[in-house]
Design a protein that fits this description.
- By secondary structure, the chain is an all-beta fold.
- Helices cover about 0% and strands about 40% of the residues.
- The chain is built from no helices and eight strands.
- The radius of gyration is 13 Å and the shape is globular.
Length: about 100
């Protein structure tokens, strides 16, 4: 039930695009237009797993999963597109 934050270690600007995936399903994104923050089901209408439990930091792109559940166990992938593109993978284990 505790929250967990997956950090990006960057600062988002208008040239930054961020995509978060859980087991190859996009769950959140930030586009260069910061008004287009896309949490959860707005990205993938078939995904109800995280309904109302994801928070996306508009300044850093870090993803927080609130009220974690055993079903949140798995691989989370982060794709960052900016001056230098990068990828990160997080393995989340819930007890």
């Amino acid at each position: 039930g505790d929250p967990v934050t997956l950090p990006t270690d960057i600062k988002v600007d208008q040239n930054t695009k961020i995509k978060w995936f859980f087991n190859d399903t996009r769950i959140a994104q930030i586009t260069g237009d910061l008004s287009k923050i896309c949490p959860d089901v707005q990205c993938d209408k078939d995904t109800e797993r995280f309904r109302d439990r994801l928070k996306l930091d508009h300044q850093t792109g870090s993803l927080t999963i609130m009220n974690t559940r055993i079903t949140d166990f798995g691989l989370y992938a982060l794709e960052i597109y900016s001056d230098s593109d990068s990828e990160k993978t997080f393995k989340v284990t819930v007890y």
